[in-house]
């Protein structure tokens, strides 16, 4: 008789892919935009976003005369600095304590002047930069950020694997004793070699899901469900719902 043991806990897994291939990132962690190409970013839930620069990397290396910056948030309204949105005078933006509702398109318009050397004529140039920010509860770097968390998936995974090893060792010890002591009766439930396994349960928390088409550069990430979709349970995908207008919806209302 085989004794099958199934650990039905969720084993969260995330590759090291960061989803920043479409942007320029400096050693300071600044994320620059690219003209005509939205930059996708995945921010860990309840953590700060990277510093977004309202400029492309090439422009940043040149002299920019009288620059001005206008940031527009996901609600299509101008952003101003507050206790959660930090905007510097040089056009850098950072969102603190990122939540599902803060996901979406962040647009910055850079305006600056160019001067013709021959005529000293000034011309105002405008350039738009788009940043698509999504919430991912376990974005790259989460292992180092949740050491003090009692609900940390790293700790959970370790405990589950430790439980697996102890259960396996129990059955192996039991099998050794009974196979080497012929006077004992083999119990009805005993260990058979290669009959023990741990099954990885792929899932996302409610309000999150995986979408390889939309998030091809972070396909294994559980990302907040986009408007028009929701996830009420720990399923891997978000379901369609035309009435949903927010990110991270857990119900179709």
Automatic annotation (TrEMBL):
Main location: cytoplasm
UniProt xrefs under InterPro entries: Ig-like_fold, Sp38-bd, ZPBP1/2_C, ZPBP1/2_N
Keywords: Cytoplasmic vesicle, Glycoprotein, Secreted, Signal
Domain of life: Eukaryota
Protein's cellular compartments: Cytoplasmic vesicle, Secretory vesicle, Acrosome; Secreted
Residue ranges constituting the Zona-pellucida-binding protein 1/2 C-terminal domain according to the UniProt record: 204-252
Domain Zona-pellucida-binding protein 1/2 N-terminal: residue ranges: 38-134
Signal peptide region: 1-19
Family: Belongs to the zona pellucida-binding protein Sp38 family.
Name of the protein in its database record: Zona pellucida binding protein 2
Organism: Felis catus (Cat)
Designated gene of the protein: ZPBP2
